[in-house]
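Entry type: protein chain
Record version: 2
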Amino acid sequence: MIRKFDKKICLIVAAIIILAVGLIWLAFCWQFEKIKEFSENIQKEQLNSLVKQERSQKVLELGKELFGIEARGKELKDMLVDKENAVPFLKLLEDIAIGTGNSIKISVFDLTKMKLQASKKPVETSDAESAKDIQKESQAQKAAKAKEKTPDFSNQLGFSVELLGGYGGFLDFLTKLENLPYFVRVYSFQADPVAKGQASQAADASTDQANPANAGNQSIKSTIIIGVYINGK
Protein backbone atom coordinates (compact mmCIF):
# COMPACT_ATOMS: atom_id res chain seq x y z
CA MET A 1 0.00 0.00 0.00
CA ILE A 2 2.81 2.38 0.85
CA ARG A 3 4.57 1.72 -2.44
CA LYS A 4 1.37 2.36 -4.42
CA PHE A 5 0.85 5.57 -2.47
CA ASP A 6 4.42 6.66 -3.15
CA LYS A 7 3.92 6.00 -6.87
CA LYS A 8 0.76 8.12 -6.93
CA ILE A 9 2.56 10.95 -5.16
CA CYS A 10 5.42 10.73 -7.63
CA LEU A 11 3.04 10.79 -10.55
CA ILE A 12 1.15 13.75 -9.12
CA VAL A 13 4.38 15.64 -8.46
CA ALA A 14 5.62 14.84 -11.96
CA ALA A 15 2.33 15.99 -13.49
CA ILE A 16 2.48 19.21 -11.48
CA ILE A 17 6.06 19.82 -12.59
CA ILE A 18 5.19 19.20 -16.24
CA LEU A 19 2.16 21.45 -15.97
CA ALA A 20 4.22 24.17 -14.29
CA VAL A 21 6.91 23.93 -16.96
CA GLY A 22 4.26 24.12 -19.69
CA LEU A 23 2.65 27.14 -18.10
CA ILE A 24 6.01 28.83 -17.71
CA TRP A 25 6.82 28.09 -21.34
CA LEU A 26 3.49 29.47 -22.53
CA ALA A 27 3.95 32.57 -20.38
CA PHE A 28 7.48 33.03 -21.73
CA CYS A 29 6.33 32.67 -25.32
CA TRP A 30 3.52 35.18 -24.78
CA GLN A 31 5.83 37.64 -23.07
CA PHE A 32 8.45 37.09 -25.78
CA GLU A 33 5.99 38.16 -28.46
CA LYS A 34 5.11 41.24 -26.46
CA ILE A 35 8.78 42.02 -25.86
CA LYS A 36 9.50 41.56 -29.56
CA GLU A 37 6.60 43.83 -30.52
CA PHE A 38 7.71 46.42 -27.96
CA SER A 39 11.27 46.29 -29.33
CA GLU A 40 10.03 46.73 -32.88
CA ASN A 41 7.94 49.74 -31.82
CA ILE A 42 11.00 51.31 -30.21
CA GLN A 43 13.03 50.78 -33.38
CA LYS A 44 10.24 52.32 -35.49
CA GLU A 45 10.10 55.35 -33.22
CA GLN A 46 13.87 55.75 -33.46
CA LEU A 47 13.73 55.49 -37.27
CA ASN A 48 10.86 57.99 -37.42
CA SER A 49 12.83 60.34 -35.19
CA LEU A 50 15.88 60.07 -37.47
CA VAL A 51 13.73 60.64 -40.56
CA LYS A 52 12.15 63.71 -38.94
CA GLN A 53 15.58 65.09 -38.07
CA GLU A 54 16.84 64.54 -41.61
CA ARG A 55 13.73 66.18 -43.05
CA SER A 56 14.09 69.12 -40.67
CA GLN A 57 17.73 69.50 -41.69
CA LYS A 58 16.80 69.37 -45.37
CA VAL A 59 14.05 71.94 -44.83
CA LEU A 60 16.55 74.27 -43.13
CA GLU A 61 19.05 73.79 -45.96
CA LEU A 62 16.37 74.38 -48.59
CA GLY A 63 15.26 77.48 -46.70
CA LYS A 64 18.83 78.82 -46.75
CA GLU A 65 19.18 78.02 -50.45
CA LEU A 66 15.83 79.65 -51.19
CA PHE A 67 16.86 82.74 -49.26
CA GLY A 68 20.12 82.83 -51.22
CA ILE A 69 18.24 82.45 -54.51
CA GLU A 70 15.81 85.22 -53.56
CA ALA A 71 18.69 87.49 -52.54
CA ARG A 72 20.54 86.70 -55.77
CA GLY A 73 17.35 87.25 -57.75
CA LYS A 74 16.93 90.68 -56.15
CA GLU A 75 20.54 91.55 -56.99
CA LEU A 76 20.02 90.48 -60.60
CA LYS A 77 16.76 92.42 -60.79
CA ASP A 78 18.52 95.54 -59.52
CA MET A 79 21.01 95.15 -62.39
CA LEU A 80 18.20 95.49 -64.94
CA VAL A 81 16.90 98.84 -66.14
CA ASP A 82 13.22 99.63 -65.74
CA LYS A 83 11.77 99.82 -69.23
CA GLU A 84 9.34 102.56 -68.20
CA ASN A 85 11.96 104.58 -66.31
CA ALA A 86 15.50 104.57 -67.72
CA VAL A 87 16.27 108.03 -66.28
CA PRO A 88 18.53 106.77 -63.44
CA PHE A 89 20.63 104.83 -65.93
CA LEU A 90 20.95 107.79 -68.31
CA LYS A 91 21.76 110.11 -65.40
CA LEU A 92 24.55 107.74 -64.38
CA LEU A 93 25.99 107.84 -67.91
CA GLU A 94 25.95 111.64 -67.83
CA ASP A 95 27.70 111.70 -64.45
CA ILE A 96 30.40 109.33 -65.74
CA ALA A 97 30.92 111.49 -68.83
CA ILE A 98 31.30 114.63 -66.72
CA GLY A 99 33.63 112.83 -64.32
CA THR A 100 35.88 111.74 -67.19
CA GLY A 101 35.96 115.18 -68.83
CA ASN A 102 33.65 114.43 -71.75
CA SER A 103 30.60 116.14 -73.15
CA ILE A 104 27.88 113.60 -73.88
CA LYS A 105 24.82 113.25 -76.09
CA ILE A 106 22.53 110.23 -75.68
CA SER A 107 19.86 109.15 -78.13
CA VAL A 108 17.69 106.06 -78.48
CA PHE A 109 19.03 103.55 -80.99
CA ASP A 110 17.23 100.68 -82.73
CA LEU A 111 19.48 97.66 -82.18
CA THR A 112 17.78 95.68 -84.94
CA LYS A 113 19.31 98.05 -87.51
CA MET A 114 22.90 97.45 -86.45
CA LYS A 115 23.68 94.71 -88.99
CA LEU A 116 21.99 96.63 -91.77
CA GLN A 117 24.22 99.58 -91.07
CA ALA A 118 27.32 97.44 -90.71
CA SER A 119 26.72 95.65 -94.02
CA LYS A 120 26.51 98.80 -96.12
CA LYS A 121 29.66 99.31 -98.25
CA PRO A 122 30.36 101.97 -100.86
CA VAL A 123 30.50 100.73 -104.44
CA GLU A 124 32.98 102.31 -106.86
CA THR A 125 31.25 102.52 -110.25
CA SER A 126 34.49 103.50 -111.98
CA ASP A 127 35.92 100.01 -111.71
CA ALA A 128 33.48 97.60 -113.39
CA GLU A 129 35.28 94.44 -112.28
CA SER A 130 35.46 95.64 -108.69
CA ALA A 131 31.76 96.53 -108.82
CA LYS A 132 30.90 93.00 -109.99
CA ASP A 133 32.96 91.49 -107.17
CA ILE A 134 31.25 93.71 -104.64
CA GLN A 135 27.86 92.82 -106.12
CA LYS A 136 28.63 89.11 -105.80
CA GLU A 137 29.82 89.64 -102.27
CA SER A 138 26.67 91.60 -101.47
CA GLN A 139 24.48 88.80 -102.86
CA ALA A 140 26.41 86.23 -100.81
CA GLN A 141 25.92 88.36 -97.72
CA LYS A 142 22.20 88.63 -98.40
CA ALA A 143 21.92 84.85 -98.82
CA ALA A 144 23.86 84.25 -95.61
CA LYS A 145 21.78 86.86 -93.82
CA ALA A 146 18.55 85.16 -94.90
CA LYS A 147 19.77 81.94 -93.28
CA GLU A 148 20.89 83.61 -90.08
CA LYS A 149 18.52 83.81 -87.16
CA THR A 150 17.51 87.36 -86.37
CA PRO A 151 18.88 88.36 -82.93
CA ASP A 152 16.30 89.05 -80.26
CA PHE A 153 16.72 92.53 -78.80
CA SER A 154 13.29 92.64 -77.16
CA ASN A 155 14.87 92.46 -73.71
CA GLN A 156 17.24 95.38 -74.32
CA LEU A 157 17.10 99.12 -74.75
CA GLY A 158 19.51 100.50 -77.33
CA PHE A 159 21.30 103.83 -76.99
CA SER A 160 23.76 105.77 -79.10
CA VAL A 161 26.23 107.61 -76.86
CA GLU A 162 28.23 110.41 -78.48
CA LEU A 163 31.26 111.70 -76.56
CA LEU A 164 33.46 114.69 -77.20
CA GLY A 165 36.65 114.93 -75.18
CA GLY A 166 40.18 113.69 -74.75
CA TYR A 167 41.43 110.25 -75.66
CA GLY A 168 42.22 109.46 -72.04
CA GLY A 169 38.74 110.53 -71.01
CA PHE A 170 37.28 108.25 -73.68
CA LEU A 171 39.20 105.26 -72.27
CA ASP A 172 38.17 106.16 -68.72
CA PHE A 173 34.54 106.32 -69.84
CA LEU A 174 34.74 102.85 -71.41
CA THR A 175 36.34 101.44 -68.26
CA LYS A 176 33.62 102.86 -66.03
CA LEU A 177 30.96 101.76 -68.50
CA GLU A 178 32.12 98.15 -68.08
CA ASN A 179 31.90 98.48 -64.28
CA LEU A 180 28.37 99.86 -64.17
CA PRO A 181 25.91 98.13 -61.80
CA TYR A 182 23.76 97.25 -64.83
CA PHE A 183 23.86 94.61 -67.54
CA VAL A 184 25.29 96.73 -70.35
CA ARG A 185 26.56 95.36 -73.65
CA VAL A 186 28.78 97.42 -75.95
CA TYR A 187 28.03 96.48 -79.56
CA SER A 188 30.29 98.92 -81.38
CA PHE A 189 32.22 102.13 -80.99
CA GLN A 190 33.96 104.52 -83.33
CA ALA A 191 36.43 107.26 -82.41
CA ASP A 192 37.70 109.99 -84.75
CA PRO A 193 39.99 112.95 -84.07
CA VAL A 194 38.29 116.35 -84.15
CA ALA A 195 39.39 119.66 -85.61
CA LYS A 196 40.85 122.35 -83.39
CA GLY A 197 37.65 124.38 -83.42
CA GLN A 198 35.59 121.43 -82.21
CA ALA A 199 38.29 120.56 -79.69
CA SER A 200 38.08 124.05 -78.16
CA GLN A 201 34.29 123.70 -77.94
CA ALA A 202 34.72 120.39 -76.15
CA ALA A 203 37.16 122.00 -73.71
CA ASP A 204 34.73 124.85 -73.02
CA ALA A 205 31.85 122.39 -72.52
CA SER A 206 33.73 120.41 -69.86
CA THR A 207 35.73 123.21 -68.14
CA ASP A 208 34.03 122.88 -64.78
CA GLN A 209 34.44 119.08 -64.54
CA ALA A 210 37.56 118.60 -66.67
CA ASN A 211 39.88 115.68 -66.09
CA PRO A 212 43.52 116.87 -65.68
CA ALA A 213 44.71 113.71 -67.43
CA ASN A 214 43.08 114.93 -70.65
CA ALA A 215 45.12 118.13 -70.83
CA GLY A 216 47.69 116.74 -73.26
CA ASN A 217 45.45 114.22 -75.00
CA GLN A 218 44.24 114.33 -78.60
CA SER A 219 40.60 115.42 -78.64
CA ILE A 220 38.32 112.88 -80.27
CA LYS A 221 34.67 112.45 -81.07
CA SER A 222 33.37 108.96 -80.38
CA THR A 223 30.09 107.12 -80.88
CA ILE A 224 29.28 104.07 -78.75
CA ILE A 225 26.33 101.77 -79.45
CA ILE A 226 25.18 100.01 -76.28
CA GLY A 227 22.32 97.79 -75.22
CA VAL A 228 21.13 97.65 -71.62
CA TYR A 229 18.98 94.76 -70.41
CA ILE A 230 15.55 95.59 -69.05
CA ASN A 231 13.30 93.87 -66.51
CA GLY A 232 10.23 93.79 -68.73
CA LYS A 233 9.37 93.29 -72.40
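Comment: The helical segments are 2-78, 87-99, 114-118, 128-147, 167-178, 196-205.
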